[in-house]
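Below: protein 1.
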Amino acid sequence: MSLQVEEQLQIDQKEQAEAAASEFAASLKSRDTEEKIDIWFYRPIGLRIAKVCAKLKITPNTVTITSIYIGVVAGILFYWDNIWINIVGMLLLIFANSLDSADGQLARLTNNKSRFGRILDGIAGDFWFGAIAIALSLRLMHAGWSPWVWVLAVVSGLSHVIQSAMADYYRNLYLFFLKGDTGSEFDNSKDVEKQINEFTGIKRFAMKTYHNYTKIQESTSPWLQKFLIKLRTDPGFMTPELRAGFLKANRPLMKYTNIIQFNTRVIFLFIWLFMDQPWLYFVFDILILNPIMLYLINRQESYSKKALSPARAS
């Protein structure tokens, strides 16, 4: 092979690598808000699935609904005190999350985004973890636990809903400051409430559910709401210095939004199942992930309060 041909091959390979990297970057919301496990594992798999779905003209919502069914089946398989059945459930849950990654990447690559798709994607995990909580509770009762285990499951489930809501809220707030309205999915309850009547049937139910979801986010962050009102009502408030300061202060917090989301929770769930101690899943949710969420809320509230202080305004 001549030197000229080798050089041309190297150029072609470089261009292909750059094109692949650009395509992968376009499928992400932002590297700042992505967890390393997602970047290394779920996003590459999700991109491959998204590209196949794009060729087959499969919509993002279809991918999301498929992920919900698979994730629920995975959760049901954790009922049996049989590690091999549990491992099948683990693999299905990983596949469901890969699909959940793919739906967003497909929507961004094909520019096929919708409000209903955003809502559907947001509640997919609630179906998975609802099935997991029910299966684990029934498993523990079958093993001789008192029906009071349902109290533990409900507290854990409510904790999970709030944790996911706040992690999603802060992530989209960060994306709003980073990319503006087009780069984030940042909603408020008043806008969502106005749109409920535009939908019927299951979509209307989903909108009402999402409305409650946004109200949880807002009621848990009072100083942030004042900060957002200031942004909306005072055009001069959003200065380049404020934007840069917000991103600098909140970039370190993104790791905490990831910790209280899917990967950490599932890694420890798998550990508890291998140890045959599924009750620890509920305890971990309540006693470990809740304090991390409270720390995240406190940091964000403190920043919002400081940003609105008279000292800053002067």
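Below: protein 2.
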Amino acid sequence: MEAEVSWSGLPGMSFVATTGSGHMVCMDGAPDGGGNNLAPRPMEVVLAGTGACTAYDVVLILRKSGQDVRNCKVKMSAERADEAPKVFTRINFHFQVIGRGLKPNLVDRAIKLSHEKYCSASAMLGKTAELVFTHEIIED
């Protein structure tokens, strides 16, 4: 896996990342840190990427289990260390799994498998942060 990050050259702290798959992601800093608030902060991108990684796993596992999953949302809130490096110290993941006739035990299993076996991002963040998972099933 590869990526390249370049300073945009604009006044402030805007950066553009180009991923190995050829996609671009813009990032910026907060105004009080020299940024212009034109894009998400780098740590917000890390958090969002982790949510996408685990949601991807949950949907894939549920589909393979024969579940009629229609949507999966993950709402996350994170706490960070007060001192640099300001790593995540706690991340709450709340899954909203939407579908028809979803079996609660299979939803539980999918979330657990994602966290314990498949999601590389949450495995990394779990080295510095307490990860808390909750969920609700919404009938569609």
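The chain has three helices and six strands.
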